[in-house]
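request received
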Amino acid sequence: MPESDSDLDSFRAEVRTWLEENCPPGARNVLQSADNSFWGGRNPEYPNADRKLWFERMAARGWTVPTWPKEYGGGGLAPAQARVLAEEMDRIKATSPLQSLGIMMLGPALLKFATEAQKREQITKIARGEIRWAQGYSEPGAGSDLASLSTRAEDMGDHFLVNGQKVWTTYGHKCDMIFTLVRTNPDAPKQQGISFLLIDMASPGVEARPIRQLSGNTNFSETFFTDVRVPKANLIGELNRGWDVAKYLLTFERTTMGGSGSGRSDESLEAAALRLLGRDGLAREPRLRQDLAEVLTDSWALRIANRRLMDQVNAKRAPPFTPSVLKVFATELELRRTRALMALGGFDHLDAAGSPAYKWLDAPTNCIAGGSNEIQLNILSKRALELPEV
Amino acid sequence: MALVLSPDETMIAETAGGLFARHAPVSAFRALRDSEDPLAWDRDLLRLLAESGLIAPNVPESGGGLGLGVIAAGVIAEQSGHVLAAVPLLASAMAGSLIAGAASEEQKARLIPAVVSGESVIALALDEAPRHWPDHLECVAEKHGGEWRLSGSKTAVIEGFGADGWLVSARAGSAIAVFLVSKDAAGLEVERFAAVDSRNYARLRLKGTPGERLGQADASAAIAATLDLGRALLAAELLGISDEALSRTVAYLKERKQFGRLIGSFQALQHRAARLYGRLEIARGTVIAALRAIDEQAADATWLASLAKSVTTRLARELLAEAVQMHGGIGVTDAYDIGFFVKRGQCAGDLLGDDHFHTERLARDHWQL
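response:
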C-alpha cells in the first residue's frame, strides 16, 4: 500500500484528474440534505441524471466505500488515501455519491461479525447501493432502555418466525431491508437473549407506517412484524450475542451524528447572517451577533474535534469515548444553530413551509436518536469517568 | 497538520510533567504563597527547567533558541497548569518570540541566550487598560540625543515584578516600536500587583525612562504574533488547569459519601461531570490546532489562537465553578487546593483577552464589522 508522501502526491494527482473528468456538473455544489441525497435501493430515485452517472462511476471504482476491501466491492484505500479522496471531492464540491445506513452503520458491523458468505452477499450490495437499509432497534417500550426490547424471533428449525413492533425506523417505508435486534431467548438476562437479524421488508407480514414529525416531514416509520419468516442465514454473529453487534454498530452511528452540525451540510451560519442581516443588521443587534458568534465558535471547535478524531484514528490513538462526546455536542449545537437561523430570519422564518422552520423542528430528533444524549452522558459517566453505579 | 502529538512532542510533555511532579507539586506552590516571597516564583525550578531546555523552547534556532516549536511551549504550559507551577514560563516564551520577531541580529545574539538559559527574566509590558485592549497604546518614545526615552504607564505585566528587563511597547512617531528597559533604568517605577492567583505581576510607570529600541522597523506585526502565541499558551495552560480540576473533582465524587452512598453515584452529578469531560475533549482540539497553526505560520493562526483562548476561557470558568460546587463546603476553604485552580483559572482566562474579547474579535473579523 502506498504510504510515502510522494506516493500520496501521485495518488492525489491521479484522483484529481479522474474526478475532474468523471464528476458531472449536476453532482457538484449540491447542498446536502436527506431529500437531496441518493439513497440507492431496489427502486432507486436519482435526484438527476448527473447524479446517476456520478453514482455509477464511483461505485465502479469502489469509491462509494473507499476504505472497504476490494473483494466486497470497496475501494481498498488506506486511510490516508481515503482522506486525499475526501479532500479532492471537497475541493470540487462533489456531492457524496451514495448515502446509506448500510455504509454508515451496518457495513462496519458486518465486516467485523458476518461470515464470509454473508459478507460477499450483503457488503457487496451495500457498496453498489442495491439495498436501502433501515435500522430496527427502538420499540414502543424500548427507547433509552433498548435492551428491554420484546420483538421475538422464534427458532422454527429452518427459519426464524418474527413477531413484534419497531419504531423510529429511519425511512422505514422507503427501505428494502432492515437490520433488527430481536429477542431469541426470553429467559436470559435482558442483554443476553438478543440476536442481530437481517429482515427483508418485502417479506409477507412486514408493514411500515410513516410517522409524521413536528416539522411535517416523515423521516421515520413504525414497523410491524406479524409471523414474518426469516432465513437462518440472516443471523449475524452468534445466537443471543446480538447485543455485541448492536453496541459496535452504535459507535458508528454516534460518530456519524458527531460529524453533523459542523455546518458542512448546509449554508454556513456566517453566510446566512450576511445574506439575511448584512453588516448593518449585525452592527445594529450586538446581542444577536454575540449569540451567533458563540454558536459559530462552537461549530469551529466541533469541526476541529472531528478532524482531530480522524487524526487519532489514523495514529491508532482514538479515545474510545469520543463518539459519545461528539454526538452530544454536535446534536445540541445543531439545535442552537437552527434556532439562531430562526432568529436571523425573524418573521420570514416562521413560515411553516420554509426550510429554516422544519430544520429547527427536526433538530431535536438527533438529540434523542442514536442513544439519547442522556444515555451518552451515562456512558461517559460510567466508562470514561468510571463513576460508581448506584 | 496532524492534531495529535508526535512521539517527540509526547516526550517533551512527559519530561516537563515529570519535572513538575517532582519539583513543583501544588504543595510547593502553597508553600511559596505562604512564604510571601515578593518574587512569587521558584528560582530553582526556573534553573532546572532551563537546564532541560524547557524555557522558551519555541524560539527558532535562527534566533538562538532550541526551535522545538510553539507546540513544545504549549505542552509544557499545559503540564504547568496541572500543578500551578509558579515560574516565568509565559514571559520567557513571549519575550523570546518578540525578540526573535523584532530585534536586530546583534540584539538577538545578546538577549535570547540569556532568556532561554533562565539567566534573565524579561517580561512584556504591552497592556495599558484594565481590560485587554491591545490597540489602546498611549505610551510614547521620544529621541533625546541618541537615546530613546519612554513616558507612559503599563499594567498587567505578566511575571514582571523583579524582572531583569521589560519589553515595552510605545509609539515612536508614526511607528509602533518595542523598547528594552533595564531594571536599573532611571525614571522607572515598578509596582508589585498582588493578584488573586498569588502569582507575579507588575505595573510600570515610565517618566522619560531610557530604553533600547528592538530593531528599526515597525513592530506591530511582531507584537501581534507574540500576543497570539501568548494566547495559545494560556489556552494550553487553561486546558491543564481544567483537566486537573476535573480529575480532582471526579476523584472526590468517588470518595465522598452522603445519604449512605458515594455522591458520584448520583446521576445529577454524573451528568454534570460527563458534560465537562466532553467539553474538555472538544477544547483540546482547538488548542493543538492553534499551536500547530502558529508553528506553521498558517494564515488562520490568529483566528485559531482567538478560538482556543475563547473556548478554554469559557470552559475553565464554568468547569471551575462546577468543581467548587461539587466539592461542597471544603471547596470554598483555603486549606483545600481546588480553590487555587479557580484563582489561577480566572487570571489565565483574563490575561491577553477573555472569552468576551476573543468571541467579539472573531465576530468582527469574520463579518468585517
